[in-house]
Design a protein that fits this description.
The protein is an alpha+beta fold. It contains 6 helices and 12 strands. Strands 1-12-2-8-9 form a 5-stranded mixed β-sheet. The termini are far apart.
């Protein structure tokens, strides 16, 4: 078996709107003494992608709708934040004081539409109370970064964008894939044999989420400042993948 090595990249600066993420990653790889090889994967925290794509919103500029006011009354959320949650969601699934569970417009279920206050420094353009939305199209973002890195290195790579999500059946947040390019989301092991010759019947592995959780562990969640992780030794062949692979169809979701 191959070893799986995850290395958080050093000296990635605080990202600002319009920054060249691929260029920052290449510079950090050089500082770390890492030369890209075929099969390597770069895992990026959602925040740096959102910041580079200027997904900042100043709450002072948000006018709550009547629906947002009603959601605010039920949950205690700032009405302006409630308005953004509604804009970023296909459907509100559950509410309680302090929490709103939604189906995000990207298709996955998450809390508060993935809108974040933590580690969100305001853009240099002005003051206010700022929040950060998820990338508009994380798969496309991953594909564009991958194309730049592959062009610079001449290697076959994968790029994974991750965020921290809760789960319906367990406590604690876990790193989860929200965008990917060049690596599989799922590996279907049905038909494979186990150690004793038994043929697997139902095993489909969410390998992108497994890698996301591992990368999130070395990134940290607070002031670590390591939003990019280099991965070597991914135990499956790289192939084209997308977030859609990982989304459970609504009719199969027993928690809705």
């Amino acid at each position: 078996m191959k070893s799986l090595t995850l290395t958080p990249l050093p000296n990635v600066p605080l990202v600002q709107p319009g920054d060249d993420l691929a260029g920052l990653i290449l510079s950090s790889l050089e500082q770390a003494g890492i030369s890209l090889q075929d099969g390597d994967i770069l895992v990026l925290a959602q925040k740096v992608v959102s910041k580079a794509e200027n997904r900042f919103v100043n709450l002072a500029e948000v006018t709550p709708s009547d629906a947002a006011l009603r959601l605010s009354q039920k949950t205690g959320k700032d009405p302006r934040l409630a308005e953004l949650i509604l804009r970023e969601s296909r459907e509100i699934l559950r509410t309680r004081p302090g929490t709103v569970i939604v189906e995000h417009r990207l298709g996955f279920v998450c809390a508060n539409a993935g809108i974040d206050h933590s580690n969100v420094a305001p853009p240099s353009s002005g003051e206010g109370e700022w929040v950060l939305l998820l990338p508009e199209n994380p798969d496309q973002s991953a594909a564009e970064i991958r194309a730049r890195l592959e062009a610079a290195s001449g290697k076959r790579l994968g790029v994974l964008i991750i965020d921290s999500h809760g789960r319906a059946w367990r406590l604690g947040t876990v790193g989860s894939a929200i965008g990917l390019s060049g690596l599989p989301g799922l590996i279907d092991e049905r038909g494979w044999s186990d150690l004793f010759g038994y043929t697997l019947q139902i095993t489909v592995v969410g390998v992108a989420d497994e890698l996301a959780a591992a990368a999130s562990l070395v990134m940290g969640q607070a002031a670590e400042g390591t939003p990019v992780v280099h991965v070597r030794g991914f135990p499956y062949p790289l192939q084209e993948g997308s977030l859609k692979e990982l989304l459970r169809p609504k009719e199969q979701d027993m928690f809705r």
